[in-house]
Amino acid sequence: MLKPRSTATRELVNLDGLWRFATATAVGERPWAGPLDTPLEAAVPASYNDLFTDSAIRDHVGWVWYQRLVRVPRGWSEDRVIVRVDAATHQGQVYVDDSLVAEHVGGYTPFEADITQYVSAGQEFRLTIGVNNELTNTTIPPGRITVTQDGCRKQTYLHDFYNYAGLARSVWLYSVPSVCIEDISIVTGLDGTSGTVEYEVETSAPATVRVRVLDASGAEVAASEGTSGSVRLEDVTPWRPGAAYLYELVAEIVDGDGETVGDTYAQPFGVRTVEVRGTQFLINGEPFYFTGFGKHEDTAVRGKGHDDAYLVHDFQLMEWTGANSFRTSHYPYAEEVMDFADRHGIVVIDETAAVGLNLAVEAGLTGAPQRPTFSPDTFNDETRAAHAQAIRELITRDKNHPSVVMWCIANEPSSNEEGAREYFEPLVELTRKLDPTRPVTYAAVMFATSDNDRIAELFDVLCINRYYGWYIATGDLATAETYMEGDLRGWAEKFGKPLIMSEYGADTMPGLHSVWDQPWTEEYQAAYLAASHRAFDRIEAVVGEHVWNFADFQTSHGIHRVDGNKKGVFTRDRRPKTAAHSLRQRWRELGGRKPSGEGS
């Protein structure tokens, strides 16, 4: 699915702004059948939960409705008209006037519908979008809905971040010609000083396709014909971490004589290779050491709503710290984020929304008897089918981004439990079939060790989440460092694969200080990270470190959290804690290279 772009043959209307808004309990059974009867308005893009003062809206479980009038530009009379929703968390329905035109399950990937038959150029129509935030044992991410004694529906879930919902990304109306380019796939390689570009163009009907490759100055450097093929770029400028260089593949549908262009679309791409060799992670044949963060799309008031100002500032802060990468924990981020990473040379581990496939964590937090994670009554074949669809949609959307160097198909699953291999093996095979060019990983939970993990051998890179010095050996950093090193050596010796510390961190209250190693203080967070780094530096197989988290973020209700998770090295409003300065000193010295510690 191509991202909507304005081209010589396509036009684009952004539908962001204030929409009428209501919960399902406040309107009738068919809210799309007429003007939405509500005094409320909600911003798009934004999560709706924190916009209003009414707690019933914040805690609502089920459908909410957005509505606005849209006018089709009068010049679109000969074109097809498409409505696109960049994300609806976690299920969406789209109505044009009284007609249902699109449905989608999955809260972080786009969907669209051809509405040409329902609208007329120059005329208005009523656009209504329903969004459902319900999570069950067969959704990705999973959850459970219960009914309280007073009859209220309550949503519980297994991920440790707030279940923000709504239209958190943009909504678009765009036009395409009747015969159009529907998708482009690009795979690049390096051959000495030359670059290779394999391409495939999908069209809505059989058509003659012409392809041109433009360099960053707009000069044509290669050309080809046909819906698939390859071109060679002499004296290529590769895409490198910290030194992004983008080409454009311009695909055109042309008539028989090649003079008239029926449709055109320009797809940016970078020429680079990714490879795992032994315990090394190579980009363009050179060892790469990941420095950066697990992040969240999370800001005050907006929730998970995309915001370009925060996008720019967050990348500036990452550059300031010396970070060269991040993981899209724990869901695909907005396409604008991926485009920005492409343009600025930031490396991305791209993750599905499969977080919470672990009922051992639920048992540990609630004290309830542990249920098996993988079973017909818990996470089952239907769950795996939803998970597979999430993988398909992630790769379909992000396959052409040079910044994306690896697919992460799950965060902290119960990989040590019976049934884990049967659940994950088909998903790993699917991921490799969809994209054989990128390594595949998952992030291992604390309960999964090198001795009991059942799925590690299926993956190319092992991402390890560990909190020695916080949840284990709290306040005892000497013991924590010993535990960390022993744990990592176990993984390295058994599997012989690259290891990335995908999560490690300590909750920290900004402004809390102490001369002792006292948890929650800024000094303790910095000392905790330093102890972890000493352990990493002694393990040759460790090829990266992603601190949890970039910034403080909101979580669900719970006595173990005070106004959210405080493991950020920046506050939720992006002010640095002491640890941010410590990381800056370390990462700027490393410059994307493996530390030269003992054993490396």
Automatic annotation (TrEMBL):
Classification via InterPro entries: Beta-gal/glucu_dom_sf (IPR036156), Galactose-bd-like_sf (IPR008979), GH (IPR017853), Glyco_hydro_2 (IPR006101), Glyco_hydro_2_cat (IPR006103), Glyco_hydro_2_CS (IPR023230), Glyco_hydro_2_N (IPR006104), Ig-like_fold (IPR013783)
Keyword RNA-binding: no
Domain Glycoside hydrolase family 2 immunoglobulin-like beta-sandwich: 181-272
Domain of life of the source: Bacteria
Keyword terms: Glycosidase, Hydrolase
GO molecular function: beta-glucuronidase activity; carbohydrate binding
GO biological process: carbohydrate metabolic process; glucuronoside catabolic process
Domain Glycosyl hydrolases family 2 sugar binding: 14-177
Domain Glycoside hydrolase family 2 catalytic: 274-589
Signal peptide as annotated in the record: none
UniProt KW Cell inner membrane keyword: no
NCBIfam families found in the cross-reference section: PRK10150.1 (NF007538)
Protein name: Beta-glucuronidase
Annotated source species: Streptomyces flaveus
